[in-house]
What we know:
The protein is α+β, with helices and mostly antiparallel strands. The two termini are 119 Å apart.
Amino acid sequence: xxxxxxxxxxxxxxxxxxxxxxxxxxxxxxxxxxxxxxxxxxxxxxxxxxxxxxxxxxxxxxxxxxxxxxxxxxxxxxxxxxxxxxxxxxxxxxxxxxxxxxxxxxxxxxxxxxxxxxxxxxxxxxxxxxxxxxxxxxxxxxxxxxxxxxxxxxxxxxxxxxxxxxxxxxxxxxxxxxxxxxxxxxxxxxxxxxxxxxxxxxxxxxxxxxxxxxxxxxxxxxxxxxxxxxxxxxxxxxxxxxxxxxxxxxxxxxxxxxxxxxxxxxxxxxxxxxxxxxxxxxxxxxxxxxxxxxxxxxxxxxxxxxxxxxxxxxxxxxxxxxxxxxxxxxxxxxxxxxxxxxxxxxxxxxxxxxxxxxxxxxxxxxxxxxxxxxxxxxxxxxxxxxxxxxxxxxxxxxxxxxxxxxxxxxxxxxxxxxxxxxxxxxxxxxxxxxxxxxxxxxxxxxxxxxxxxxxxxxxxxxxxxxxxxxxxxxxxxxxxxxxxxxxxxxxxxxxxxxxxxxxxxxxxxxxxxxxxxxxxxxxxxxxxxxxxxxxxxxxxxxxxxxxxxxxxxxxxxxxxxxxxxxxxxxxxxxxxxxxxxxxxxxxxxxxxxxxxxxxxxxxxxxxxxxxxxxxxxxxxxxxxxxxxxxxxxxxxxxxxxxxxxxxxxxxxxxxxxxxxxxxxxxxxxxxxxxxxxxxxxxxxxxxxxxxxxxxxxxxxxxxxxxxxxxxxxxxxxxxxxxxxxxxxxxxxxxxxxxxxxxxxxxxxxxxxxxxxxxxxxxxxxxxxxxxxxxxxxxxxxxxxxxxxxxxxxxxxxxxxxxxxxxxxxxxxxxxxxxxxxxxxxxxxxxxxxxxxxxxxxxxxxxxxxxxxxxxxxxxxxxxxxxx
Length: 867
């Protein structure tokens, strides 16, 4: 039935049969100390030497340390309690004792508090009890099922039961109670499930519950004056008295009540004009005999002058005369809903056409204050800052010449405001059809001055204890702050009161949890009840569309939690997510990221540590380091190869130019040598013969011989010059030109020598180029072979043949002379060596051999170049 631990670490158990059991160091001892089947079993260790035991018969104490030395328990009757119902240890020391029909708190044998007799019926079983965060007692009942009694610091208790309607318990039989760190009471019921109870700081004037309240004020005696429907009522000494039910048979619609500084009470109606409280009744007030048309606002300025906003303009009463202002005098519209004045002598008028300023008898329209918006309320604070409530433009702040607007974008729950009022804790309260809102005025000022970009607008609705989330609009004064600091708010279902000092902020910073991660709408994980929090997620290559679902553990007001998140490595600043619980990233480049999310509760306390998730986006293979390394190496190799190829080609071109230059130089040298060797010697011989002819001019025979020699030398020189020109002419670098010239030379030379000859050459030769050096060396070798036939072979005939192959040609010279054996010594080795050397210089071949029919066969083979 009960368990407790003493200061020595022993665990004590009290059973339903009245047996007390001690368990320590693995050993259990028991004593029979109480009656059987008691509904109360209580164990409390108040101090090291005092342990309290309670049952239905009473309250007893004993010394736990003495029981260790003796097998007996020495129980002492304690505190004179003879009928105990419940024991609860207090966190502040001492214990609560519910016995003998009273609720008392004891500490060290002395009664610390007495909350008086039980509030629940007799014979009701106290089944559970606990303390709230402030140390106040909460009691739960069973068997009679009377619900929960929640005590306040003043000793009064609120009764929470199913009789509270929609905000009540699901069942009045209570099994267990617990108050969490957010101040909510959790109630375990006997058949109705689990209930959460939140103590509301708001109260409702019961006599006004269900009625649409339009205006409320306080007179100099502390009485409340309330306007609703066809009634102006006074709340005095706990009693509500209604006035002005009708006037002349007309049901009046009372819109506003106001108590001025002379303690005169005014009441304005929408259909019956203005009234003033006189001699225990409201009497009509007229303007020069005329009823004011639809009074919506009443204000007394700093000079004591009364101002009335009506549906027909602005009226002023200075105790001597009335004066009116309409659109003719400059008002933006004739419907005036709000009036106030500031410390600079300005009168501010809120109309359905905008905000106007009246100064020195002149009205000026303020175009900066939400132009075209209806002005619903005005308030000037102690710093002479003007606060403007509009019916569509939100809240507007004016200080000097600076205007600042606050709308839904900044966090307001609605842009249509009804009334606004300031409490003594520095908060502005804004009433709207969407609910009641509280905002710290310092945050609004900081936002206006650029000190912050975030404002906490705390909204209150039915879940917070209001009878409805819809506040009244259209009258001034609407809400007001009483002299004792209490706030009064008109709503469409009653008049709500509030002690701002009782508004306890939820300072618990909510834990944050990542619930779900989706990639391409496919779930990556789900955190079950026993699953470890997700620490990291890896996105495969090519996958996109990351969604991270998160939430916060804020049981007090989960729907008002706010979030901000940031993906480090992708975002440099925080994203204000508001109430959204999903972060989406459509496409992320491959990299490593860290997703961080933090949460704030309904009162703006943030868990800055939050939670985080490592996100790794894997790259496709073409973006991996190894692939990039291979590509880089290939690219580097390609660059090196290209540079090498270009450099090599450049060098080869330079080498080819050098070779061509060398060939040209060699050709020039050859031509110079040939000219020198052949033409020079011949011309020298001609010169010498000429001199001899001149010397022997008197000898005709000698002159004739010299002339013949000169003529022969000239012919040989001409032939040699013809050969040099032919060799030097690049147009002759063909096979056809070489063979034609060689055959012509052989024909002329052999004919001059008187030998028969035969030319075996194809009629047409292919247009195959022959390099100059090949042409030169082949012709000279061929010439040497023909000369040898004439000079040394002693032949009677010669034959010249041409053999063509795909890559070479062979020029053959054959005679029918005496052959190699007879002519070897005359030809000489130098001639054959020179012929062989010339053919080897052009990568050709030279051979000399006996002919088949006698004589000699010389073969000159040279490579054949193709175009």
